[in-house]
């Protein structure tokens, strides 16, 4: 069922608006690539390598195992597969982020049953210095939320402090959750809400390499925030290329570009310029300036098409997603 989601969205969008979905418009087409590994059919997270320029780490959503894939953006091919040991059987791996000291954090934090699992997991391992197929022992952390179980697909690690954050997935408006200053492998790590995010279903998030900006994406759009010590201040909407079922986002290692990915076989990864520090740069095709000074709440307003078209597309896709989860 998931294989049809991108097609359904595209057909619905064209029918309602009379135009094809927009592609990346920032002139960075040379950074775009396609993940060609036939094993990667549900790429749900993306992280730019800190040690290997042009390499992006990704993983499948579920039903795959404890694997990470290093994809070379110049060819789209997998150049290394990492098998994680020291962890249980993954349930719903949704996010990946790299923190200080080149530590990879993997978020097994999805809950398609709407928040019925009493705990979720985070795995931590060092980014390998050599890109070869290998097995690496990871540390597994048990995670709970202070206000009850929930579904989430977004995990970020602050590049300066190493603190881990999660954004829950809630179409009525979610929150940024902050973990303990240092995760414990022997106890339960309680994450607490510290700031609201806009009313979109967050499918991934990324912190800029300098730790100053947070980008939260949904299936169709994204919003950039000033990090502001975790007290998010909304900067602007971010232009997002249409990729079908949009699931992932990461900053390039130099912080100048955002790379957006999607699920599916031969899934595309496309670039957009990262938002400016002042928020004065208009997103592509927008014609309006950044909405600096807004808080984390409020309307998403982050789509390239009209609100009516977006609502119809979302209804179709979410309907198919719910149906597929039952099957």
User: Quick one: overall form?
Assistant: globular
State the helicity in percent bands.
10-25%
Coarse structural class: mainly beta
How much beta, percentage-wise?
35-45%
CATH structural architecture of the largest domain: 6 Propeller
Give me the number of helical elements: 2
Structure keywords:
mainly beta, disordered N terminus, 327 residues, disordered C terminus, 5-stranded mixed β-sheet, Neuraminidase, 10% helix, 8-stranded mixed β-sheet, 2 domains, 36% strand, globular
Protein model, in words:
The structure is a single chain. The protein has 327 residues and is mainly beta. The protein has two domains: 42 residues, no CATH class; 281 residues, TolB, C-terminal domain (Neuraminidase, 6 Propeller). 10% of the residues lie in helices and 36% in strands. Helix 1 runs antiparallel to helix 2. The longest helix has 20 residues. The chain is globular. It starts with a helix and ends with a helix.
Question: What's a concise summary of this model?
Answer:
The protein is mainly beta. The protein is built from two helices and 22 strands.
What secondary-structure arrangement, pairings included, does this model have?
Elements: H1 5-17, E1 33-34, E2 45-48, E3 55-59, E4 67-72, E5 78-85, E6 95-99, E7 103-108, E8 120-126, E9 134-137, E10 139-145, E11 152-157, E12 164-168, E13 175-178, E14 188-196, E15 204-207, E16 213-217, E17 222-226, E18 233-238, E19 246-251, E20 257-262, E21 268-273, E22 294-295, H2 307-326
Parallel strand pairs: 5-9, 10-14
Antiparallel strand pairs: 1-21, 2-3, 3-4, 4-5, 6-7, 7-8, 8-10, 11-12, 12-13, 13-14, 15-16, 16-17, 17-18, 18-22, 19-20, 20-21
